[in-house]
Amino acid sequence: MTFGKHPDGFGVGMNVKIKAAKFLRTLLTWYLLIFSVLLLPVNAQAIQSINDKEFDHFGTGFPLNGVHARVNCESCHVRGVFKGTPTSCKGCHDSASSVSASRKPINHIPTFSACEECHTESSWQDILNVHSAEALGRCITCHNSIQVIGKSVQHVATTNECDACHGTYEWDVDRMDHDLISVECAFCHNGQVARGKSAQHIASLNDCQDCHDTRRWQVTNVNHDAVTGVCQSCHNAIIATGKSLNHIQSASNCVDCHTPNSWSVERVDHASVRGACESCHNGTQAQGKSATHINSLNTCNDCHTTNNWEPLRVDHGSVIGVCSSCHEKSPDHINSLDTCDDCHSTNSWETNLVDHSAVIGSCNTCHQKPVNHIESSNDCGDCHSTISWETDVVN
Fold first, then answer.
1. Given 111, 129, 147, which residue is the final one in a domain?
2. Rounded to an integer, what distance in angstroms lies between the CA atom of residue 128 and that of residue 144?
3. Structural domains counted in the chain
4. 137: how many CB neighbours lie within 10 A of its CB?
5. Domain hosting residue 32, numbered range
6. At 251, phi and psi to the nearest 5?
7. How confident is the model over 204-244, as pLDDT tens digits?
8. Are 11 and 40 members of one domain?
9. How many helices (H) and strands (E) does the chain have?
10. Closest to 247 measured CA to CA, from 287, 199, 279, 207
11. DSSP state at residue 393
12. Are 298 and 277 in contact (CB under 8 A)?
């Protein structure tokens, strides 16, 4: 019976020992786990040190430069995962990325996500270029005097984008797009902001485009309405075409005869002509006397006006020929010589006096005796003179 009890006693002792062994094993496991966690940073640094010395990151296609060479591996390789680690800026520096990297601030200018277009890998403050194709929006999106420098108060009034006139590396004006400038030329072209009129410039208004284009200072057209000086201030054969050597003698006001669009003579202000009529009206420079013109002096305005060749008056003092070279007597005219002024004046055909010596016919050709006249022959001169009907003598 004693032997029979021994196994039961032995079984109880064995159970106690097994339970104690399990407890010690569990305790040892926790101890090793805690110890391993405590030693993890030391091991990681050691591994990192080894990696830095032995692992060539260049072979991955993503060389570590600048700040990237100084960060811990686990900053990019999250939870020790190497495969699939992002290599683009956006993959790490995006708000949706799991990588612990700095994000684009909310006040960052609108751009795409290629950070390297403007920044270096050494520092966010090292900005190489901000006007790359990565930048979004209009110039004023950034150049608004809040985020970055904008137009100064002295800037010309324009709705152009900055790059219409400026380069992207400096504010110097590389070119000028005048299309959207809303102020007058002289606002800029005053000799201070931009090149203005020289001291030798002709007297004119200040609207440059009246004569120049916006690409160069060469004169492409002259708007004579904008010229404030007299013609000869330009047309003096030095600045611009002047009167030729064979020009008629005249004053220097070109518009008296010419238009601002052409040198062709469209009209002649004879008040500006200083020479005699024949200096122009000689059949070469201007219409002269025709072959059938009456024999006369060459002073055209003795008979003609400067507006029309039709004779409005005749200065008979300029006529060289005899009366009959122009005038023909009517069929019922008395028989007489052809010297009109023997009886007529040059102002009227009315008979003011009669030079009877020019009358060829007999007296009764013109004169009829009154009914109470004494009976006589028809030769008036027998009793009367050619001056009066008073009887001087009776034949």
1. 129
2. 21
3. 2
4. 10
5. 1-51
6. -70, 175
7. 988 888 888 888 888 888 888 889 888 888 888 888 888 88
8. yes
9. 4, 2
10. 279
11. -
12. yes
